Amino acid sequence: MSDTIKPNKVATVNYTGSYLDGVVFDSSEGKEPLSFLVGKGQMISGFEQELMGAKIGEKREFTLTPDKAYGERDENAIQKMEKGQFPDDMNLEVGMIVGAQSDQGPIQFSIVDIDGEMVTVDFNHQMAGMTLRFNVEVVNVRDATSEEILHGHAHGKGGINH
């Protein structure tokens, strides 16, 4: 059926993501619903798996353990770097999230500690090691266009906007 979430469909959902203590970390409430191309790795794996087979109007609530979300924390992902490796005009602060280019593409890391000329950085995703809860309502499901499949992501209203 065309109104069922499966690979190469564009799913549009309203969602709220929260930690186990109930604190909301992200929500589409008050914003546009989220659209994504199913089966292309745009969403964390567990999110897509839990929505497979859902139909328009269906609501699903699920909890994702770290292995189905952002992975476990890896202590080897915490490293020390010299301050000189950062741009001179960057005002480094503990807790700051920094984006950079790597051989594998864009990466993000957080600054954990600053000790003189040494900066401790954490390459773990900010939600690594966390169990996450989602409430999702399927708003729409449609066939992806051949262009969307080729590009590996959903296009917004009016076509390509990237």
Q: Layout of SSEs?
A:
Elements: E1 9-19, E2 24-27, E3 34-37, H1 45-51, E4 59-64, E5 78-82, E6 97-102, E7 105-115, E8 118-122, E9 132-143, H2 146-151
Describe the protein in words.
This protein has 162 residues and is mainly β. It contains 2 helices and 9 strands. It folds into 2 domains: 9-70 and 128-151, Chitinase A, domain 3 (Roll); 75-122, Thrombin, subunit H. The protein has helices spanning 45-51, 146-151; strands at residues 9-19, 24-27, 34-37, 59-64, 78-82, 97-102, 105-115, 118-122, 132-143. Strands 1, 2, 3, 4 and 9 form a 5-stranded antiparallel beta sheet that branches. Mean pLDDT is 91; it is low at 158-162.
Gist?
The protein has two helices and nine strands, in the order βββαββββββα.
Question: If classified by CATH, what would the architecture of the largest domain be?
Answer: Roll
Find the structural class using helix and strand composition: mainly beta
Radius of gyration: 19 Å
Helical residue percent band: under 10%
**What percent of residues are in strands?**
35-45%
Strand tally: 9
User: How many helices?
Assistant: 2
Shape: elongated
Q: What's the number of domains? A: 2
